[in-house]
Amino acid sequence: MEELARGFVQAFNLIFSFEPALYEIIWLSLRVTGLALAISVIVGVPIGAALGLSRLRLRGLITALLYTGMGLPPVVVGLFVYLFLSRSGPLGGLGWLFTPSAMVVAQVIIAFPLVAGLTMTTVQGIDPALRLQVRSLGATPWQEIWAVLREARIGVIAAIVAAFGGIISEVGAVMLVGGNIEGKTRVLTTAIVLNTRTGSFDLALALGVILLSLAFLANVAMLQLQRRAGD
């Protein structure tokens, strides 16, 4: 308990010390996670909605793949991204390994199945009569998808919240593909691992408190958005 209390005190002191290195780590954490989440939402929500509305024969296979992706171990994702982006890999020419770009790719692969899969499930739960009504008014397929998504917006926001929670606290994949390089790819989760390994438990706890606080504030904001969407 004493170590935990010291962690809270040190977290408070760190935040208000305005240490440039700390704020650089926080900013990189938010930038990588935010960009990965945005890409996953932009791609995953339309695909999830389309799958939820489609009657394709392969939908069962695609659904199984999405559900499998929702349970992928992050460290395995990191390993595959590492192999693809390494010098001998097919995408090695991009030069993304051990950069924030590689970290974003890994987090997108983790978040996309969550966004698409949960959106698909939510859309499937919408009353089919809505689709018939919209279609009778002459809506295009994309307008039909948009109408269904508006009806399913609370569930879609929940999918985004789940994806955010899955990547903001992720460490295995970003450690592998980012390398935890100080001033370049070090984020809150990898900094916590580093300080724990070196025995700096107070600092690790302080960074953990900061990470939990950021996740809490982000989730509160999303839940407020979800509440407004339900009004």
- What is the straight-line distance between the termini? 42 Å
CATH-assigned fold name: MetI-like fold
Number of domains: 1
Oligomerization: single chain
User: What structural class should be given to the helix and strand makeup?
Assistant: mainly alpha
Order of helical and strand elements: HHHHHHHHHHH
How many strands?
0
Mean pLDDT metric: 83
Uncertain stretches of 5 or more adjacent residues: none
If you compute it from the alpha carbons, what radius of gyration comes out, rounded to the nearest whole angstrom?
20 Å
What is the level-2 CATH architecture name? Answer: Orthogonal Bundle
Main CATH class = Mainly Alpha
How much helix is in the residues?
over 70%
Count of separate DSSP helical elements: 11
**Main β-sheet: number of strands, strand sense, barrel status?**
none
CATH 4th-level superfamily: MetI-like
In one word, what is the shape? globular
Residue share in β-strands: under 5%
Description of the structure:
The protein is an all-alpha fold and 231 residues long. The chain contains 11 helices and no strands.
